[in-house]
Specification:
Largest sheet: 7 strands, antiparallel
Radius of gyration: 17 Å
Oligomer: single chain
CATH superfamily: Cysteine proteinases
Shape: globular
Number of strands: 7
Order of helices and strands: EHHHEHEHEEEHEH
Number of domains: 1
Length: 250
């Protein structure tokens, strides 16, 4: 049976106040490992209705909570589909049963809501943008914070792929970023060959080249579900991040 693949990420909204992760990475940070996988301890991933509605921006949050709690706490917490749908309604204006309101959401709006109201009882403490074209920073951020919340402008070529790769044989139109649509996914793993995201109820691989070409936005999230005792990793300036966040939140 073919699973419908709904999207739902609206174009990235850039806010000059959004904090940049690189500002808080100290020189004493440990180098990221060659490979890491925070999703390998998760037994199954819910669809979260993303085969029916364009709630990928919230479904991605639910999947991040799964990975964080399974790795950071040692026992997995699962956000309910009802909580995902409630957050989608709150952020995106979706009214169940009214397809005209199923219009997706902006990732920054989701992050602000996640931080203030929470999703299924889980909140984030802060978020900071990650430069998607700096592979070392991407590796470091994913390693330190238990994953990344990203937005991809998917090409038509990705629609039928079981692993996202650049299809050089396709037409320029089919390869164009966003020609299929915008999608939100969590990154939970990487190695030398690429990265692993979670979408439509399962892990999905993407090459580093695909990520570099089609990732439009990426965020590192500070979560108590992953960081023990609400302490930042060694070499990460958590105090400065919190102070700056308080300043821009006023």
């Amino acid at each position: 049976m073919t699973v419908r693949r709904a999207l739902g990420r609206l174009p990235a909204r850039h806010d000059a106040r959004t904090l940049r992760l690189v500002s808080y990475l100290g020189a004493e940070l440990p180098p990221p490992p060659d490979a890491i996988d925070y999703g390998d301890v998760v037994k199954s991933w819910p669809m979260y209705a993303n085969d029916r509605v364009g709630n990928c921006t919230i479904a991605a949050a639910g999947h991040m909570v799964q990975a964080w709690t399974a790795e950071g706490r040692g026992h997995e917490a699962r956000v309910s589909e009802a909580a995902v749908m409630h957050a989608y309604s709150a952020v995106g204006g979706y009214i169940p049963g009214d397809p005209s309101t199923d219009n997706g959401a902006v990732e920054l709006d989701v992050l602000k809501y996640w931080r203030s109201a929470g999703i299924g009882g889980h909140t984030i403490g802060a978020y900071a943008a990650v430069h998607a074209h700096d592979e070392r920073t991407v590796r470091t951020a994913l390693y330190l914070f238990g994953g990344l919340y990203i937005g991809v402008a998917l090409p038509e070529t990705a629609e039928m792929q079981d692993a996202w790769e650049i299809d050089e044989a396709a037409t320029a139109e089919a390869q164009a970023p966003g020609s299929w649509g915008g999608h939100a996914v969590p990154l939970v793993a990487y190695d030398a060959d690429g990265l692993t995201c979670v979408t439509w109820g399962k892990p999905l691989r993407m090459s580093w080249a695909f990520f570099a070409k089609y990732c439009e936005e990426a965020y590192a999230l500070l979560s108590r579900d992953f960081l023990h005792n609400d302490k930042g990793p060694h070499g990460f300036d958590l105090t400065a991040l919190r102070a700056d966040l308080a300043a821009v939140s006023r």
